[in-house]
Amino acid sequence: MAANFQHPFQCFRFVPRPNTNLLIGSAGSKLYSYSAETGERLAVWPQEVASTNANAVDADSGSEQGPPGKKRKVSASETQTNEKPAWSNIPILTTTTNGEYIVALTAEDKCVRVFQLQEDGSFTQLSERAMPKRPSAITLTSDDTTILCGDKFGDVYSLPLIPSDKLPVITKALRSATLSHPAATNLTVHTKGNRRALEQQLRLASQGKKDEKAPGPAFEHTILLGHVSLLTDMAYVSLPVDANKKRSYILTADRDEHIRVSRGPPHAHVIENYCLGHTAFISQLCVPHWAPEYLVSGGGDNYLLVWKWAEGRILQKVSLVDESSQATEVAVHGIWATSLGDLRVILVALHGSSRLQCFTLEADGTLKAQSPIQLSGNALALTPIEKDNTILVSVDTIRQPDTTQEWRASASSPSTLIEAFHIKSTTDTLEWEPATASVTKKINSTGTDEVPATTEEKQRKELNDSLYNLGHLRKRKGEDE
Amino acid sequence: MSQPPPKRQKRAEYRKQVAEAVGDESAPVGKVKLPKKKFYRQRAHANPFSDHQLNYPLSPAHMDWASHFPAFVNPDPAQTNLIGTRKLLKDVEVVDIGCGFGGLLVGLAGLLPETLMVGMEIRVAVLDYLTTRIQALRMQQQHQQKTQSQSQSQPPSSTSTPAPAPTTPAADDAETPSDAPAPPDPNTSTALVPGGYQNISAIRSNTMKFFPNFFNKHQLSKIFICFPDPHFKARKHKARIISETLNAEYAYALRPGGLLYTITDVEEYHHWILRHFRDETAVEGGENEGPTVKELFERVSEEELEKDECVQVMREATEEGKKVTRNNGNKYVAVFRRKQDPEWA
C-alpha cells in the first residue's frame, strides 16, 4: 500500500524570540510551531483533541457579522472542536517584529486571526475578524500596532492588531449608505420599463420594506485606499528623511500592472507616484529591510523589475527565463530578500518550479545572477536564518517537481517538507551547500497532516488550486463587446 | 445563420463610409458631413470591472499623443517619447471622464483654443462616433479657414491659432462651401471656431483602472465628470465613478488649484458627490475620524461658478444636459478645487 502524502508548508517562518527561537508554518488547514534549535514540534492549531480550548479569548468579535449573502458562519466553538474546520488552507502568515503575535488568514471564511505565540510555542487566538472580501495581502505597520489588509476588491483596510474595547462607529461606511427610498425619480427615468420598475420600488419603500443590507464588519476598521482591481501584494516601508525623522509609505500592487506608492496612514489617500513597467499582473513586491529604497517586483512577466520606488524609476529589468525557452509563460511565486554575511541576497521562486533563482543586490541597486539552487520539489515558502547564514525552504512534497498539477506516483518516507541550505564560506560569488541540520530532519520526520494517496481527482484539483492559483490572474484575450 | 442582422450591417457600412470620407483629405468640403448618432448607438452601461480589450500606454511617457493632436506636435523630430512617437509642444490639461458623444469637448474647444483636451469613453461605438465627429469638424474648419483667408486678405488673428495640418491640398475648394446644408447643431455650424477643433481628441479607456497610465502627477488643470452613470442600486455603488478611493486618483492627476467639475440630474448622486468631496455646508456632528481624501478638495462657491464659462458649457452643451432640459429635469452642479497636499505627518 502506498504511503500517504504530507501537506506541504504553504507558509513557513523563522520567528526570533528573546528566549527560544521558533519556527512556525501553515500546512493544510493547520498552524504548526517548532523549536528552532531542535526541530521538535511544539504545538498545532486548531488542536486535534476535541476538548474546548479555554484559551480562545474574544473569539467571536466579528464572526457573527458575516458578509452579506454568504452562507457560512463560523462560530468560535465550531472552529475549536469540529474535526473539519471551515477553511482548507492558511495562505497568509505574518508576525510582529518581536515574534510575540502572529497574524494568519484562514482562506474560505476570510478571517484575519491574531494569535499570541506563547513561550512554549502554543497558539492563543486573541481575535478573529471576518473581512467583507477575501484578503489577498496582509502586512503590519512598522510599529506593530496596525494590520493592513488588502482584498481582492482592491481595497486596503487598517485594523488595530489588538482590537480596543470601544465599539466602532459604523456610520463611516460611505459606500454602503442605505436609502429609504429609490434614488431615481420621474425626472431621471424615462423609458416605460424603467418607470414601471420605479413605481414598484416606490410602492415597496412606502410599505416600509427595507433592503436586507448588512452593514460593514462590526469591528474597528478604516479604509485607507483602493484600486479598481484585484490587489495582489502590499508592502509597508519607512524611509529615513534625516537623522531622526522617518516617512512611511504603503506600496500596493494589482492585477492591472500598477504599483501604487501612497503615504502611510493617516494620509494614505495622498498618492506619491506610480511604478509602471509591468505588462502582466504583479504578484510579488519585495522591499529588503536592509535597503528600503529598492523594490524588486515580479508577476506574470518573464522578468523582474528593480525600482528606486520613491522616484518610480526602473533601475533594471532582470530576465527570469533562458533565452531558449522564451515561449513558456511564467509567474513569480515568491521573492525573498536576506543579508547573509556580507552578501545581500535576493531569492526568487517561479510558480511551480523546483529551481530557486539567486541574485545578489549590488551597491548600485542592480541584481547580479548567481548559481541557482535545485530543490527536490517546487519551492513554496522560504525563511532565512541570518545568524546561521542559512535558509530554510518549504518544498512541495505532493506534486511532481516543475508541475502544478501532476501528483507524484508515491510519497517518499519521510517526506522532504523542508530543505536547508547553508552559504559556502563567504566568497565573492554566492554558493550554497545543503545543510544537514538535525532541525529539518526532525521536522520532516514528524510530518504534518496526511493527504491520502488515494485522493480523488476533483479533490486533488482543489488542493492544487489552493497552492497554485496565480494562473487565474492572467487576463484572457478576446471577450469584449 | 451567419448573416449579420440588417440593422447592424447597415450601421457597419455607414460607419465605414463616414470614416473613409473623413479620412480623405482631398474631399470637397460639401462632402464632409458630420456622422449621425443613430448609427452609433450602444447600450448605456459598460462593466468597469471586466477586462475589456483596451489599449493603454505602459505609462504616461509611453503615450502616443502626436496622433491625437497633429497640430501641436513638436516641430523637432528628435523630441520623442519612450515608444518613439513625437512629443507635443504642450501636455494635455483637461480630461472629460465618460465623454459620451463629446458635446462638452466640442463646446469647450473654441472656449479654450490653446488647451489640449481629451475625452475618455469606455463604449466602443460611442468613441467611434466621437472620433469621426472630431475629424469631420477639423476638416470643415480647415476648409472654412481657407475660404476665409481667400476672401479676406487677412484672417482675424483670433482664428489663426494653431496652423492646420499642412497636408491639405489647396486646389479643390472651388465648390460653394458656406451654403452647404447647415446642420441644426450650433456647434457644427460653419462658423469659424478658434483652434479649429485641433485641441480636442478622444480615447477609449477604462478610467477607473487606467487613469494613471495616461497622466502624470499634477498634470491636469480640469477634470469633468458629467452625468455619470448613477448606478441606482446600492449593490452597484462600487461601480460609481466617484468614490473615496477613486477620488485619490483624481487628486493625484490634478494640480493644486485645478478644478474637478461634476454635474448630475440625480439628486441622490449629487449628495453622494458632496459626501465624497468636501462640503462645508453639511458638516456632520462629531466627525473626527481622521483625515480622508476629502482634505484634498474644497468646494468652489456659487459666485465663482457663475463666472466660469465651462460650467455653462457643461450645463447646456453636453448631450445628456440637453436631454435633461428636454425632459424638464434638474441639474446639480458641484465643482471642487484641489488643495495642496497636507504636510507630512
From TrEMBL, chain A:
Compositionally skewed regions (Basic and acidic residues) per UniProt: 455-464
UniProt keywords, alphabetically: Nucleus, Repeat, tRNA processing, WD repeat
Biological process terms in GO annotation: tRNA (guanine-N7)-methylation
Biological or metabolic pathway of the protein: tRNA modification; N(7)-methylguanine-tRNA biosynthesis
Record GO cellular component, one term: tRNA methyltransferase complex
Location(s), subcellular: Nucleus
Compositionally biased intervals (Basic residues): 472-481
Region (Disordered): 54-87, 441-481
Matches recorded under InterPro entries: Trm82, WD40/YVTN_repeat-like_dom_sf, WD40_repeat_dom_sf
Broad class of the protein's primary localization: nucleus
Superkingdom of origin: Eukaryota
Family in the record: Belongs to the WD repeat TRM82 family.
Xref: HAMAP family: TRM82 (MF_03056)
Known function: Required for the formation of N(7)-methylguanine at position 46 (m7G46) in tRNA. In the complex, it is required to stabilize and induce conformational changes of the catalytic subunit.
Protein name: Uncharacterized protein
Organism of this sequence: Aspergillus ibericus CBS 121593
Lineage of source species: Eukaryota, Fungi, Dikarya, Ascomycota, Pezizomycotina
Automatic annotation (TrEMBL), chain B:
Location of this chain's protein in the cell: Nucleus
Amino-acid positions noted as binding S-adenosyl-L-methionine in the UniProt annotation, renumbered to this chain: G98, E121, I122, N206, T207, C226, T318, E319, E320
Residue numbers annotated as active site: D229
Region of interest: Disordered: 140-193
Pathway(s) this gene product operates in, as recorded in its UniProt entry: tRNA modification; N(7)-methylguanine-tRNA biosynthesis
Any Pfam family hit: Methyltransf_4
Gene Ontology cellular component annotations, sorted alphabetically: nucleus; tRNA methyltransferase complex
Keyword Repeat part of the UniProt annotation: no
Enzymatic class: transferase
Catalytic activity: guanosine(46) in tRNA + S-adenosyl-L-methionine = N(7)-methylguanosine(46) in tRNA + S-adenosyl-L-homocysteine
Enzyme Commission code: 2.1.1.33
Stretches with biased composition (Low complexity): 141-162
Keywords: Methyltransferase, Nucleus, RNA-binding, S-adenosyl-L-methionine, Transferase, tRNA processing, tRNA-binding
Domain of life per record: Eukaryota
GO molecular function terms listed in the Swiss-Prot or TrEMBL record: tRNA (guanine(46)-N7)-methyltransferase activity; tRNA binding
Subunit structure: Forms a complex with TRM82.
Family: Belongs to the class I-like SAM-binding methyltransferase superfamily. TrmB family.
Function as written in the Swiss-Prot or TrEMBL entry: Catalyzes the formation of N(7)-methylguanine at position 46 (m7G46) in tRNA.
Name of the protein: tRNA (guanine-N(7)-)-methyltransferase
Organism: Aspergillus ibericus CBS 121593
Phylogenetic classification of the source organism: Eukaryota, Fungi, Dikarya, Ascomycota, Pezizomycotina
